[in-house]
Specification:
The longest helix has 19 residues, at 228-246. The chain has 247 residues and is α/β, with parallel strands linked by helices. Helices cover 46% and strands 15% of the residues. It has a single domain (12-242), classed as TIM Barrel, CATH 3.20.20.70. Helix 7 crosses helix 8. Helix 9 (205-210) links the parallel strand 7 and strand 8. The protein has an 8-stranded parallel barrel, surrounded by 5 helices. It contains 11 helices and 8 strands. It starts with 14 loop residues before the first strand and ends with a helix.
Length: 247
């Protein structure tokens, strides 16, 4: 799969459907339900382990793009070896934790790019489930939540990675710091007709695109909807409206 360059991202590809399931059969039903509507899917730790990695193979067979969301975080060599495995899984994007440090991210970038220059390597900044108070408690830092995300984004770019995962609230300032080609992948996106669930820092799809998000990771508003195709298309309409305003 070709690495998407600049901002020429297919509109439909901007929605990454999160397959937050514990088994492969339920995930397959959703993929079949959405059909040609959705083209990019996120496979996280729960589904990857429960399917013994077969979920990725199935999606590739269905000609879908895979964001492998395993969030590697370890000493540099171990994280790099795991990342090499991920890059061979035919996914178009995978992630590590920025909090693993610049050296870890540099090692990952160097090792992976030797064998696969097309895969997008991104780093997770601050989890969207964390509040400002929880960030201060967890990291014992004087940084605000936004400052912490911005600092990790800066280190991520310096390390040679392609982008970050952050809440949509940080996307605009991260683009200003790291450049328009630095990819922003944002969970915590909820249409007004959906519920927030366990996300703390949320934004509507339209506002998220206007605020600098390249990709929107969306699960329950689509997969938990009575009519997933309808939900997907409503979100797609919001994205199209935002792109028209930006142009």
């Amino acid at each position: 799969m070709n690495k998407i360059k600049n901002n020429t991202i297919e509109t439909r590809d901007r929605i990454i459907v999160a397959l937050d399931y514990s088994n492969m059969e339920d995930a397959k039903k959703m993929i079949n339900n959405l059909g040609e509507n959705a083209s990019v899917y996120k496979v996280g730790l729960e589904l990857f382990l429960n399917s013994e990695g077969k979920m990725v193979d199935y999606l590739v067979e269905q000609k879908k793009k895979v964001f492998l969301d395993l969030k590697f975080h370890d000493i540099p060599n171990t994280a790099a070896m795991a990342s090499i495995f991920a890059s061979k899984e035919k996914c178009f994007m995978f992630n590590v934790h920025a909090s693993g440090g610049k050296k870890m991210m540099q090692t990952v970038a160097e090792k992976v790019k030797e064998i696969n220059k097309e895969v997008l390597i991104i780093a997770v900044t601050v989890l969207t489930s964390l509040s400002e108070e929880e960030v201060k408690e967890t990291f014992n830092s004087n940084f605000t939540l936004t400052e912490l995300a911005e600092n990790w984004a800066k280190l991520t770019k310096e390390a040679g990675l392609d982008g970050i995962v952050s809440s949509p609230w940080e996307a605009k300032s991260i683009k200003e710091i790291c450049g328009k080609d630095f990819k922003t992948i944002c969970p915590g996106v909820r249409p007004e007709w959906s519920v927030a669930n366990d996300q703390k820092r949320i934004m509507t799809p339209k506002k998220a695109i206007l605020n600098g998000c390249d990709y929107l990771v969306i699960g329950r508003p689509i997969t938990g909807h009575a009519e997933p195709k309808v939900a997907f298309n409503l979100i797609l309409e919001e994205i199209e409206e935002a792109l028209l305003e930006l142009n």
